[in-house]
């Protein structure tokens, strides 16, 4: 799974700045990705022994660089996309699938839940995921609306 965000540094750029990859290695990965359509992080791991933790750290840095929270009221939610995960997954990982755009699954999470959401998305989806960052209270309100669960108040207290 690749995670991208328009207007921010790409995962490869971050891994170069962290000293994990060289620019030549990033170009090799991009060439392989173009030919085979496989996720950047997966290729980095396979071709250059980049650890999954390093890829995750780069993803998190990429999203934190972006820094802007979206208003979920302004987002279009495709009810068919909500079906890609179940209620337990939505609440456990604080992920709200929103739509598909440009070959990517668009989902929302909060800044506090980003690491958990990225880990879940990386293991769960075979398609790139584009995360929008929302405030946690608004995310939880939308989760309650789209994935209603009577036990959610106890999850909120524990989360």
Notable characteristics:
159 residues, 3-stranded mixed β-sheet, 3 strands
Could you characterize what this model shows?
The chain has helices spanning 11-17, 23-36, 40-48, 52-66, 87-93, 114-124, 136-146, 152-158; strands spanning 96-101, 104-110, 129-134. 31% of the residues are buried. The protein starts with 10 loop residues before the first helix and ends with a helix. The protein has a 3-stranded mixed β-sheet with strand order 1-2-3, sandwiched between helices. It has 159 residues and is mainly alpha-helical. Strand 1 and strand 2 form a beta hairpin. It has 8 helices and 3 strands.
Strand order, sheet with most strands: 1-2-3
Measured on Cα atoms, how large is the radius of gyration?
16 Å
Major sheet details? 3 strands, mixed
Mean pLDDT: 86
Distance between the termini: 26 Å
- Count of individual beta strands: 3
Question: Can I get a quick summary?
Answer:
By secondary structure, the chain is mainly alpha-helical.
Topology:
Blueprint: H1 11-17, H2 23-36, H3 40-48, H4 52-66, H5 87-93, E1 96-101, E2 104-110, H6 114-124, E3 129-134, H7 136-146, H8 152-158
Parallel strand pairs: 2-3
Antiparallel strand pairs: 1-2
């Amino acid at each position: 799974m690749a995670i991208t965000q328009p207007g921010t540094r790409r995962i490869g750029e971050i891994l170069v700045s962290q000293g994990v990859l060289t620019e030549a290695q990033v170009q090799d990965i991009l060439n392989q990705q173009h030919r085979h359509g496989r996720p950047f992080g997966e290729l980095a791991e396979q071709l250059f022994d980049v650890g999954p933790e390093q890829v995750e750290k780069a993803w998190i840095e990429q999203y934190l660089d972006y820094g802007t929270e979206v208003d979920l009221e302004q987002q279009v939610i495709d009810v068919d996309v909500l079906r890609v995960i179940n209620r337990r997954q939505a609440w456990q990982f604080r992920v709200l699938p929103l739509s598909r755009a440009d070959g990517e699954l668009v989902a929302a999470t909060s800044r506090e839940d980003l690491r958990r959401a990225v880990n879940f998305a990386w293991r769960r989806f075979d398609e790139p995921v584009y995360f929008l960052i929302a405030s946690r209270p608004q995310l939880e309100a939308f989760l309650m609306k789209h994935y209603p669960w009577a036990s959610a108040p106890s999850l909120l207290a524990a989360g």
